[in-house]
Amino acid sequence: MADVKKIAVIAGDGIGPEVVGEALKVLKKTEELYGYQFETTHGLFGGIAIDEKGTPLPQETLDICKAADAVLLGAVGGPKWDNNSKELRPETGLLGIRKALGLFSNIRPANVFDCLKEASTLKPEVLEGTDLIVVRELTGGIYFGEKFRRQGAHGEEAVDTCVYNVVEVERIVRQGFEIARTRRKKLASVDKANVLETSRLWREVVNRIAPEYPDVELEHVLVDNCAMQLLRRPSSFDVIVTENMFGDIISDEAAMLTGSIGMLSSASLGEGAFGLYEPVHGSAPDIAGQGISNPIATILSVALMFRLTFGYHEAAQAIEDAVKSVLDAGHRTGDIAVDKSKAIGTTEMGDLIVAAIKK
Ligand code: IPM
Ligand code: MG
């Protein structure tokens, strides 16, 4: 009797349901090929949850996630909810789910698919060999510090506080070292230690832990310099570990290097094997419902889930190989097509990939 893996499926808003639909087909195909058993439970989250339940993160959805082995998330948000108060914004639900599930580590691989080099705004020779992972701290820092308004000498003021404790820094930095160890053994720790106290603590912790990883080459990079070096020498980075807000910014920059944000998957992890997997791209409300979105990032998020949560390495590889073979055969959705007139739709792309998954 195969062991049944429980997956909470949160399609969300915009193109979320379309891309998640294709990822579910991939799950089904791997059940057939590999004998896996997945039990999926769907939950409302984001804008649709605001509309139907009056909150972006209903307790019921959180319970579904907590009862699962992994969460597959589409995307949340859209102009409809952009002017809502903080409590009624999809983003608030996103921060809430990260915190409630203890997902302190956000892993965003950015690798350039050879056949898509022309889709990047950077020169191919600069991109050559770019394959990096941003490991972003996800439940601390300025995102979660105390926030308030007050009256100051010049009228209203707003305050956001940035707090990090040693435990929070240590666990994410260790993740960075551990991941680097499985790759090219290079870790760039990104901070702003020339200005921020939280960054000085960060750097102290990194330096204290570093001797435990003598096989990993460590560099400290100031965040502004990192933003520049990412454009100048992207291929020299292997693993980048950084705090919440720097990671938010740097990971978008890294994603854009690849020229294909529609291709990038991400994982949010806590202490155990449990993880939340989602495409890096957003809900793309401008193209939602037209059947033209790119499902590859969500499909690759399934591969990441197989690797990091279930340990299904062979099937993960099979999914990644299938994506590559479909791209190599020249199939493109509109976002990555050079000749837009030849672009295929979401379900066609999903079907091609499903058909290409081999055991
Ligand atoms: C991300 C997003 C979120 C973040 C927003 C939508 C709250 O930009 O996942 O990177 O800032 O973390
Ligand atoms: Mg972001």
UniProtKB/TrEMBL annotation:
Cited function: Catalyzes the oxidation of 3-carboxy-2-hydroxy-4-methylpentanoate (3-isopropylmalate) to 3-carboxy-4-methyl-2-oxopentanoate. The product decarboxylates to 4-methyl-2 oxopentanoate.
Primary location class: cytoplasm
Family that this chain belongs to: Belongs to the isocitrate and isopropylmalate dehydrogenases family. LeuB type 1 subfamily.
Cited Pfam families: Iso_dh
Cofactor(s) for this UniProt protein: Mn(2+); Mg(2+)
Molecular-function GO terms, alphabetical: 3-isopropylmalate dehydrogenase activity; magnesium ion binding; NAD binding
Residues holding Mg(2+): D224, D248, D252
Keywords, comma-separated and alphabetical: Amino-acid biosynthesis, Branched-chain amino acid biosynthesis, Cytoplasm, Leucine biosynthesis, Magnesium, Manganese, Metal-binding, NAD, Oxidoreductase
Keyword Repeat: no
Catalysed reaction equations from the record: (2R,3S)-3-isopropylmalate + NAD(+) = 4-methyl-2-oxopentanoate + CO2 + NADH
Name of the coding gene: leuB
Matches recorded under InterPro entries: IsoCit/isopropylmalate_DH_CS (IPR019818), IsoPropMal-DH-like_dom (IPR024084), Isopropylmalate_DH (IPR004429)
UniProt protein name: 3-isopropylmalate dehydrogenase
Residues annotated for substrate binding in this entry: R98, R108, R136, D224
SMART domains: Iso_dh (SM01329)
